[in-house]
Amino acid sequence: MVLVLGILAVIVAIVLWLAKAAVEFVWSFGGIGLIVLIIGLVLLSRGRRNAL
Asked: Can you tell me where the transmembrane regions are (predicted)?
């Protein structure tokens, strides 16, 4: 159980770090980056659902 929680904590930390990096990336590109990011997230969520 502790191991599972530890792995989840690491995954959450990585996701938060990626989100922070993505936000900085979007700020540097402006609106175009935001649109690309949203499309990418939609495709990722669809891919995850299909995988499950």
From this structure: 31-47
Q: What is the pLDDT of residues 1-52, one digit of tens each?
A: 889 999 999 999 999 999 898 888 777 777 777 788 789 889 888 877 776 6
- The one-letter code for the residue type at 10 is V
Tell me if 22 sits within 8 A of 37, measured CB to CB.
yes
Please report the DSSP string for 1-52 in residue order: -HHHHHHHHHHHHHHHHHHHHHHHHHHHHTHHHHHHHHHHHHHHHHHHHHH-
CA dihedral 28, 34, 38, 39 (to 10 degrees): -90
User: Whole-angstrom Cα distance, residue 5 to residue 15?
Assistant: 15
